[in-house]
Write a structure and sequence with these properties.
Blueprint: H1 2-15, H2 22-50, H3 58-83, H4 87-91, H5 94-120, H6 122-126, H7 129-151
Bound molecules: protoporphyrin IX containing FE.
């Protein structure tokens, strides 16, 4: 943990992202943009997987998953920069650590779905019980990460 804190402090010194600086505000805005792409894309895919939205074909699902993936990359990259503004506080914050754990689970679920889709084909997995389960888990995990992210400011 100490090494991680030192690494993040070093990153903070390089990027100059101090709390209350315009740079922090800009990175925070990009973090929210990433979250919007991620949640906007993945929730529609998940609703298709659990059977609540039927009208999305595989091409639309591919496009939305690409949007969600780009959003996740942006949210994760900017999230790391935000942490570098005050690493010791965040690494001692239980809500922040819970958020990271939930994100890790959501990413593992997404990776498993990706593996299945490559192995069997996206069309097959979209209408399978494994797909329904992955969609249901994702529908719980990503919004939970979002809620925990917002909660950090209040603890
Ligand atoms: C490794 C990945 C991530 C890291 C390290 C990270 C880190 C952070 C940090 C440090 C903050 C500022 C918290 C504060 O002091 O108020 C924040 C805010 C937030 N994060 Fe993340 N984050 C990551 C990914 C995500 C993802 C994937 C989501 C959504 C699913 C998310 C949702 C949020 C939300 C909603 C906020 C509050 C924004 C605001 O109210 O201005 N984060 N994140």
């Amino acid at each position: 943990m100490e090494t991680l804190g030192a690494l993040l402090s070093g990153l903070g010194a390089i990027t100059g992202v101090a709390l209350s600086s315009p740079r922090y505000a800009a990175v925070s805005a990009l973090h929210i943009a990433g979250i919007a792409f991620l949640i906007g894309g993945i929730v529609l895919v998940d609703l298709r997987l659990v059977g609540l939205v039927r009208s999305l074909d595989t091409a639309a699902v591919r496009l939305l998953r690409r949007l969600a993936r780009s959003g996740a990359v942006l949210a994760i990259a900017t999230g790391i920069v935000l942490v570098s503004a005050r690493p010791d506080e965040y690494l001692a914050n239980r809500v922040f650590l819970a958020k990271l754990a939930v994100i890790a689970l959501a990413l593992a679920n997404a990776a498993l779905f990706e593996w299945l889709a490559r192995r069997r084909s996206l069309q097959t997995v979209l209408d399978s019980s494994a797909g329904r389960l992955a969609g249901a888990l994702s529908l719980v995990l990503w919004p939970a990460a979002l809620a925990l992210g917002r909660w950090i400011a209040f603890v």
